[in-house]
Amino acid sequence: MIGRPTMNDVASDAGVSLKTVSRVVNNVATVDPELVAKVFASIKSLGYRRNGIAASLRAGGETRMIGLITEDLSNTFYITLASAVAKVARARGFQVIMASSEEDPEIERELALDLCQRRVSGLLVVPTSADHHYLQAEMDLGVAVVFIDRPGSGLDADAILVDNQGGARSAVERLISNGHRRIGLLMDSLSIYTMRERLAGARDALAAAGADDDPALLVENVHAPDDAASAVRAMLDLAEPPTAILCGNNRSTIGAVEEVWRSRASIEIVGFDDFEMSRLLPQPVTIVDYDTSALGTRAAERLFDRIDGIASEPFEQLLPTHLVDRGVSWALAPS
Amino acid sequence: MIGRPTMNDVASDAGVSLKTVSRVVNNVATVDPELVAKVFASIKSLGYRRNGIAASLRAGGETRMIGLITEDLSNTFYITLASAVAKVARARGFQVIMASSEEDPEIERELALDLCQRRVSGLLVVPTSADHHYLQAEMDLGVAVVFIDRPGSGLDADAILVDNQGGARSAVERLISNGHRRIGLLMDSLSIYTMRERLAGARDALAAAGADDDPALLVENVHAPDDAASAVRAMLDLAEPPTAILCGNNRSTIGAVEEVWRSRASIEIVGFDDFEMSRLLPQPVTIVDYDTSALGTRAAERLFDRIDGIASEPFEQLLPTHLVDRGVSWALAPS
DNA sequence: GTGAAAGCGCTAACAG
DNA sequence: CTGTTAGCGCTTTCAC
Question: What is the predicted pLDDT for the residue at B61?
């Protein structure tokens, strides 16, 4: 015997027809128990394994796979997402192909098309900021597409998003109600959708309260913790330093806390995105938190709705944020 | 036109044979440029997309996919692993199907067999502690299997592991050379391979130095940080409390540090497994660290070696550990 | 250089 | 209840 045994091999070994083997393998009830036993015996003795590829080809391309494209697989955010997606998929008997675009729109495109060529039933995409027009053809051919965390551009597809504006607004409102009027804003590049939204929300709240929107209090392109630390350093050196700081993501929160703590300044900090060890931060910090897992779950559910053929206008769903208190427990120095 | 256009549709539209389309799609050089142009035009106008499933069926089942089965996709350790694996796979034009066994041997089995049925070329498995005999048939049929972090049982396959014994040994040696003789050991369940190895390494070093191996200084089944905290609490209440503690994983390190800090005890702590925020720990801690990314990279490389047909005896590769200092920076209380 | 025929391993029709 | 006949969309002979 060369190569894997096929259904045909099993059929001749068991002395039944190909179709009977197929029925047995697919648990069709209406087969003579005696034949079933014979077939199973041959399957076992030959070491037969059903070829899912061939089956799905004949069955019209149902691969029971979905693709998940994120920017960076090593980031906990995407992982929580992936984990939630995998759970929903598993419940449906689907497998998940995960791929990282490494924040490169070109790679994202290649991956998406590769996955489509592998005939995934649907595609979950955390989009890089680029055009997604190229997916239109695939959508027209029946591939479901749902964007996560950021809307896609140039493509009318569903998107499950976080209410970034609302989160930033409530964060700034809390600071203002705590008496702050000068609030520093640390944002990553404004080419990132979430950053634009968060900034817009913050400014909304500042404007509503008539608080300062001083250009010196906004620093962009804060990417790494160290960037945040130096941005804070610079703000503290201003003639009128801020009394509170809003951090656009968890990396900047870490850097900001580090610098504030180091300089013994009295600055209230609110940051976006909770993280595992935020309780260890050495001063009280308020975090704009949201349920990343729910983001993945909702997106996957929506994708399966589309795969099931539920037709409706493409829509955006916003997931709520909430403020949580972090960082106190370690703040108590040993006496 | 109903459904997706096929190669046949393109062929008749372009007025060439099916095979010519196939050649063009597969970049075969020896095609008349004029025909190539015609074919491309038809492909574009019909919106043709190559069906990778059908291609791989005829080509003998080469799906250019590998499977990765871990215990828990939401854990950073597995993610770092997954990310490294995905990178190696991408360089080869392979996609990765990731699935979580949720620490259930039965699920692991189902997933592995499902992935084999989908004809992955290879399987990377972080095994739960169970029998992997069921994979033997798949291996015999040519599916490559490499275990990561823990050896599989009942199956002669490659395994890429961390030198847990060596790491624990050097950790205890350091403690001993720092003058400690009574060293508390916090381990998770000894049904976990890594825990058994780490404990064995620690005992080696204790025995070599003639230090105490007091049963009261070993606590098993330390799973969550809180378990570690109470274990430490109990040890501190001993008539002869330990002066140092070795923690079997990062969760127990967090709990142990918390309790030691809270009780103001003077205990030197060494823990296994570095983690993102370990620098924030409020007292100096030594961590037995290792390169998780390398674990994934090596495993994937090994898998592709096997996929490429490199024949050699199944082998185990141990990756080294090293001690790193963590936790000082935040220890300075504000004055 | 190009094309007709065969068939990868399976399932969907239909007939028996 | 079972078997025969097609054919999924593509690639691989092997002629032309």
Answer: 76
Contacts of residue A110, Cβ cutoff 8 Å, sequence gap at least 6: none
Q: In sequence order, what are the beta bridge partners of B324?
A: B287
C-alpha dihedral (B84, B89, B93, B98), degrees to nearest 10? -100
Name the segment(s) of chain B with CATH classification 1.10.260.40.
7-50
Q: Does B74 touch chain A (CB under 8 A)?
A: yes
Q: Rounded to the nearest 10 degrees, how much is the dihedral formed by the CA atoms of B99, B102, B107, B109? A: 70
pLDDT at B152: 93
Q: CA–CA distance from A108 to each of A71, A101, A259 (Å)?
A: 8, 5, 36
Please report the DSSP string for A238-304 in residue order.
Answer: SSS--SEEEESSHHHHHHHHHHHHHHT---EEEEES--TTGGG-SS-EEEEE--HHHHHHHHHHHHH
Work out the widest C-alpha separation in chain B, in whole angstroms.
92
For the beta carbon of residue A166, count every other beta carbon within 10 angstroms: 16
SS3 B142: coil
- Asked if B282's CB is within 8 angstroms of A280's CB, the reply is yes
What residue spans in chain B does CATH classification 3.40.50.2300 cover?
A: 65-162+292-319, 164-289
Give per-residue pLDDT as tens, A12-68: 999 999 999 999 999 888 888 888 999 999 999 999 999 999 999 988 778 999 999
CATH superfamily of B65-162+292-319: Response regulator (3.40.50.2300)
CA distance B134 to A265: 62
- Does B41 contact A at CB distance below 8 Å? no
Query: Which regions of chain B are under pLDDT 50?
Result: 331-335
- How far is B38 from B10, CA to CA, in rounded Å? 10
**For domain A7-50, which CATH number applies: 1.10.260.40, 3.40.1440.60, 2.40.10.220, 3.40.50.1220?**
1.10.260.40
Tally of residues, chain A: 335
Cβ atoms of residues B207 and B239 within 8 Å: no
A55 CB less than 7 Å from any atom of strand C? yes
Mapped onto helix, strand or coil, the DSSP state of residue B69 is strand
E strand or H helix at B67: strand B65-70
Could you read off the pLDDT of A70-87 as tens digits, one per residue?
A: 998 888 888 889 999 999
In chain A, DSSP finds a helix count (H) and a strand count (E) of: 12, 12
Nearest to A51 among B119, B276, B282 (CB): B119
- Residue A330's pLDDT band, with cuts at 50, 70 and 90, is low
Contact A162, A137 (CB under 8 A): no
**Which conformational region is residue B267 in: left (phi greater than 0), alpha (psi within -120 to 50 degrees), or beta?**
beta
Q: A164-289, superfamily in CATH?
A: Response regulator (3.40.50.2300)
Condensed to tens digits (0 to 9), the pLDDT of residues B323-334 reads: 999 986 554 443
pLDDT category at A227 given cuts 50, 70, 90 is: very high
Q: Are A171 and A288 in contact (CB under 8 A)?
A: yes
Pairwise CB contact (< 8 Å): B333 & A330: no
| pLDDT at site B329 | 52
* Through-space separation of residue B6 CA and nucleotide D11 C1' in angstroms: 14
Give SS3 for B183: strand
**How many residues are present in chain B?**
335
